[in-house]
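Tokens as discussed.
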């Protein structure tokens, strides 16, 4: 986890999460979980190729809704943090969702028309122009797919190495001492009568633009940092999460793409806990070295150094292949942008934004 945390750059995100992720289990999509039609008044599913304006459409609709007093949670693409894959818009108990429904997170309406509605950006491209560039598009799509598949192989390997690191960590960890610390930290929160819960969201992404951490949880008024030692931090984070939920709190947990809880947020206490590097000053830092058996720490040093090196190599290789996929992806975007009638798309986007805002006036 030490190597992993240092590779991330933090980006200002506001109220945002990744809606999918490139992980050791392959690509994982949260679209259906976060934007279930059973929980929304309306869900708009945006279709179209790379560069056809899907992200811009979502961004405009979210901004229009915010101007009308709605609260928006932006859902970022797990492969391109500069693009939106969705938004959750809420006001006065009315919830509207917008999501990108194209591969690799293909989504179609469940309650077609009654809730789920398709918006097709492909209506505004020049098919004849794209037919003329078919060979370029085909080559880029195939190579992009190959790069992603290769990246997932390296991420799977990184995940296996992470599991080895956790096995070593369990040999080193002074569990009772660590558990007592987690209990004391959680006990600073007044016990609530409600039943605690844990919700999963993603603040970390292994993307085509590098390893990115969203600063979403930095909105907390109190920040606790966890300084890792020998991979012990994920065990502490899981233990702390259980302790806090046992006290009746709702916890939002962010898992690292290769495994292990990396960040926690307790909204009711405005408390964030992170193992990631941050420039923000913490009210408390917990050094996991306190909970390491010094003898076992010394005995496992060589094995830990080796697995750490292997983990870093696999992660580097995954990022290199994702970067190569990104070159193909952005080249495809340029081709599709050249084919688009953006003036007509903009008019449609404005109509859609007005439609969304109208739901809050009913």
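Sequence:
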């Amino acid at each position: 986890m030490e190597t992993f945390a240092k590779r991330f750059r933090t980006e200002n995100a506001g109220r945002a999460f990744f809606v999918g992720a490139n992980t050791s289990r392959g690509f994982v999509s949260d679209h259906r979980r976060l934007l279930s039609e059973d929980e929304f008044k309306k869900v708009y599913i945006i279709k179209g190729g790379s560069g056809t304006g899907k992200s811009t459409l979502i961004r405009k609709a979210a901004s229009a809704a915010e101007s009308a007093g709605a609260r928006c949670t932006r859902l970022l693409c797990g492969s391109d943090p500069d693009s939106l894959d969705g938004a959750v818009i809420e006001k006065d108990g009315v919830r509207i969702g917008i999501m990108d429904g194209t591969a690799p997170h293909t989504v179609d309406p469940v309650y077609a028309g009654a809730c789920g509605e398709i918006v097709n950006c492909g209506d505004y491209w020049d098919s004849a122009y794209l037919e003329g560039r078919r060979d370029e598009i085909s080559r880029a799509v195939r190579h992009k797919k190959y790069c992603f598949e290769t990246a997932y192989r390296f991420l799977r390997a990184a995940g296996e190495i992470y599991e080895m690191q956790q096995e070593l960590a369990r040999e080193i960890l002074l569990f009772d001492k660590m558990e007592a610390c987690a209990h004391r930290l959680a006990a600073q929160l007044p016990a609530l009568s409600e039943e605690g819960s844990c919700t999963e969201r993603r603040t970390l992404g292994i993307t085509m633009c590098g390893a990115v951490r969203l600063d979403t949880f930095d909105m907390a008024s109190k920040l606790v940092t966890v300084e890792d030692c020998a991979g012990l931090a994920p065990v502490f984070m899981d233990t702390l999460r259980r302790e806090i939920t046992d006290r009746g709190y709702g916890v939002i947990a962010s898992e690292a793409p290769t495994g292990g809880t990396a960040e926690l947020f307790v909204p009711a206490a405005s408390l964030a806990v992170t193992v990631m590097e941050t420039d923000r000053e913490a009210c408390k830092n917990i050094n996991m070295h306190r909970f390491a058996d010094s003898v076992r720490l010394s005995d496992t040093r060589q094995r830990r150094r080796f697995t750490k090196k292997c983990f870093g190599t696999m992660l580097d290789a995954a990022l290199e292949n994702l970067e190569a996929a990104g070159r193909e992806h952005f080249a495809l975007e340029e081709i599709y942008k050249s084919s688009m009638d953006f003036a007509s798309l903009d008019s449609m986007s404005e109509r859609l934004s007005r439609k969304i805002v109208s739901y809050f006036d009913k």
